[in-house]
Every structure is written in C-alpha cells, then in structure tokens.
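Q: what sequence does this backbone want?
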C-alpha cells in the first residue's frame, strides 16, 4: 500500500526559526522527502541549507534543476526560483511570480497535489499575507493532508490563519508537536481516496503547474480558462482572469503572474501610496520652480510678478502639507499587521 512520502512546507516571516525547530524534531530515519519554500529576497544569499543541517539530522540542500530526490532529504528552493516536483525529479525554474513571490509556496504545493495526490502532506508555517492557501486547497482537493501551525503559536499568524479561513485542513498544531505528527503520518499506509477532478479543473491545475515551470501562459490559453476581470496585473499591466477555489478568489494574467484577492489588494494599496508620493514630488517641484521664477522676477524689478509667483508657491506648500498628512493617516486597503505575536 502507498504511504504519504511527500512533505511540502511553506514559510515566510519568522520561518527560519520555525523551520529550525521543526527539523530538529524529526528523527534520523524519517522516510519521506521534504521540500521547502522559505520566502527570501531575490538578491539575497540563502544559508538555509547550512542552518538546517546544523539544526537536525536530515541533510538539506538547494537542488539543481532536474535533480532526482531521495527520502530522508530536505530540498529548499533557491532565491528567485520556484521549486516543483514531478515523478522522482525536482524542477528549479524562474516561472512568473505568484503573490509577489518567487519562490512561491502555492506553486510548490500545486505541483505536489497534481503529481502525488494523496501521498502529499502540505504544511504552512508562520508568515504574512496568504501564500500557501491556494496550494493547500489543491492538496486537499486531491486527497492529501493539510497541516498548519496554530496561528497563536506562529510568530506571524497571517499565512496559517488564511489557510484555516479558506481550507478545511486536517491539523492545526503548535511547532512542538508537528515533528511527531509528520513522523506518524508518513509512517502510515494509506488507501487512496476516490477523488476525481472535472476535466476543466484538471486542465487548469496542469496549466498552472506548467506556467510555474516556465511554459507560456498565453499560448496555453490561460485567458480562456477563467472569467475575465476588470483588473490589470500590478506586475505587467496584463489582463487578469478570475478563478474560484471554494471561497477563495484568485487571479492570473496572460503572462503568468498570479495573485490571491488578498495579495492583489496589497499590490493595489502599494500602488495608491506610490502614486500619492509621486503627487507630492510633482507639487514640490512646482514649488521650487515657482520660487525660482519669483526670485528672477524680483531681481528684474517686477515686484508684482514676483509676488504672484510667491503666492502660488505658498498655495502649493499648503497642498503638499495636506497631502503629506493624508499619506501618513492613510489606512491600508488590506490591514496587514507586521508585528509578531507576543506569544510566539
């Protein structure tokens, strides 16, 4: 009989500490393969394999594209690359970003769901926003096991809380109990559930896995697979199509970038603030130009003209001051608390 021998883990803010604790609790004879996405800046150097090698008894590496994977190993996404899994290989690709991230938790989880079904276990740990929610939905939809770190136990609770809101997971546990749970679940023999996707669902899932592996979203007809929305992609300004996964709404553009509604709202909010600061910059440039023109008029003996310029400059200073105050009082469209849990 089959066993659950594929464990995919996603973490973001606070994730390195959480991953160290989790890996430390796994036994040396852990007989499943672990794949990890830890959000990291594209330009950063990741030391996570070395950190986890010192934390526990399992060997951790950054895989190369096409590497075969082995049980009892930990494979970690390199910076600025998705990792995907199929058959016995790891794919390391620079497909389009998802939820503003590459590597993407959703992309890894979808590939595990599509290729391994009930043999996959998805784990979402501490982090901000909601990467991992859509991927966990796919894992559960295809018979896998869903686990989240208890939000009150997580340093940043947003990611596990999002999964709990949209996905009927199997376990919500503190980190201290997660290693033992994973060891138990990967040791059990399982009977495959009788789950089937509709042809449309299967085609969408297959296409999204291929998009993450650098296939052309437009040529694969992504625009025909979802409902056209009135929104444009914050990354490339391409048309976004809408997908529904239970209660979750997601978007993807024809070039391949993907967003949940939450991550799209976060991008919209960032755009609002960016454009407000641009407006401040334009007004302040107008002030400098008006004052320079006023001084030139005064030096030329045109006191009346100089006063007109200086008056306009004062009016624009008031406008700039009001805009400054508005920006600092502006509440984000999507409230996202970046303060860690005190209990974590």
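A:
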């Amino acid at each position: 009989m089959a066993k659950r021998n594929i464990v995919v883990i996603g973490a973001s803010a606070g994730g390195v500490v959480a991953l160290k604790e989790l890996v430390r609790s796994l036994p040396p004879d852990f007989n499943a393969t672990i794949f990890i996405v830890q959000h990291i800046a594209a330009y950063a150097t990741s030391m996570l394999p070395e950190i986890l090698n010192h934390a526990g008894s399992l060997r951790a590496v950054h895989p190369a594209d096409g590497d075969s994977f082995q049980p009892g190993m930990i494979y970690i996404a390199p910076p600025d690359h998705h990792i995907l899994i199929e058959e016995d290989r790891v794919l390391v690709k620079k497909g389009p970003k998802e939820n503003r991230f590459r590597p993407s938790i959703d992309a890894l989880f979808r590939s595990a769901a599509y290729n391994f079904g009930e043999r996959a276990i998805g784990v979402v740990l501490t982090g901000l926003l909601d990467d991992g929610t859509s991927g966990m939905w796919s894992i559960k939809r295809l018979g896998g096991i869903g686990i989240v770190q208890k939000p009150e136990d997580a340093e940043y609770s947003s990611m596990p809380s999002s999964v709990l809101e949209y996905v009927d997971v199997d376990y919500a546990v503190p980190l201290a109990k997660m290693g033992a749970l994973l060891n138990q679940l990967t040791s059990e023999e399982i009977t495959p559930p009788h789950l089937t996707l509709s042809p449309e669902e299967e085609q969408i899932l297959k296409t999204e896995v291929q998009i993450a592996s650098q296939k052309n979203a437009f040529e694969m007809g992504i625009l025909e697979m979802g409902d056209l929305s009135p929104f444009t992609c914050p990354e490339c300004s391409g048309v976004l199509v809408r997908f529904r996964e239970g209660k979750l709404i997601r978007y993807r553009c024809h070039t391949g970038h993907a967003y949940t509604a939450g991550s799209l709202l976060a991008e919209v909010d960032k755009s609002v603030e960016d454009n407000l600061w641009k407006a401040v910059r334009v007004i302040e440039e107008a002030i400098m130009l008006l004052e320079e023109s006023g001084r030139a008029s005064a030096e030329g003996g045109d006191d009346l003209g100089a006063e007109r310029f200086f008056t306009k400059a004062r009016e624009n200073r008031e406008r700039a001051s009001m805009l400054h105050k508005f920006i600092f009082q502006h509440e984000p469209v999507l409230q996202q608390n970046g303060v860690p849990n005190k209990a974590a």
